[in-house]
Amino acid sequence: MKINKLVTYPFGYSNILKTLYQQDKLPIEKGFYGEKLTKDTVSLEHLKPHSQGGKTKLNNLVLADKFKNNQRSNKPLKEFFDPKKAKEYLDQFVNLIVPYNEKGVKKVFDGNKYIQEVTETITNLLKNNK
């Protein structure tokens, strides 16, 4: 008798932001919504939800607790956005430079560039009521 096994895969996205955090290379303590992050609870939050065409690229990603990420789901950012908590989150990246290798290529995560790009995304989403 052949038994068919149901294979399930955890929902999640991969990006250098989460990878560097899980490798202890990003000294980030708080997530985008102000929550304390741990390696077990960290997730990638799409500012513009993936289901609405948001890309899994640095300018559209922040670190957030899995619970908060699931709570928001694909609801508009404006419903969950707290400027003070967002600033506290982004301030953790000021002047942060982290070299890393990706597929044998030397790269650098630039915290100031990340702040600039994420701020632009947030501004556009809030301006367009998304």
Protein architecture, described:
The chain has 130 residues and is an alpha+beta fold. The chain is 31% helix and 17% strand. The protein is built from 4 helices and 4 strands. The chain has helices at 16-22, 66-72, 83-91, 111-127; strands at 42-46, 61-65, 97-102, 105-110. The strands form 2 sheets. Strands 1-2 form a two-stranded antiparallel sheet. The protein has a two-stranded antiparallel ribbon with strand order 3-4. A hairpin with a 2-residue loop joins strand 3 (97-102) and strand 4 (105-110). The protein is globular. Residues 1-11 have low confidence and may be disordered.
Q: Outline the low-pLDDT stretches.
A: 1-11
Query: Main beta sheet, described?
Result: 2 strands, antiparallel
Number of strands: 4
- Classify the secondary structure makeup into a structural class: alpha+beta
User: Which word captures the global form?
Assistant: globular
Proportion in β-strands: 15-25%
Radius of gyration: 16 Å
Distance between the termini: 52 Å
Helix-strand pattern? HEEHHEEH
Arithmetic mean pLDDT? 90
Number of contiguous helices: 4
Approximate helicity band: 25-40%
Cross-sheet strand order for the largest sheet: 1-2
Give a brief outline of the structure:
By secondary structure, the chain is of the alpha+beta class.
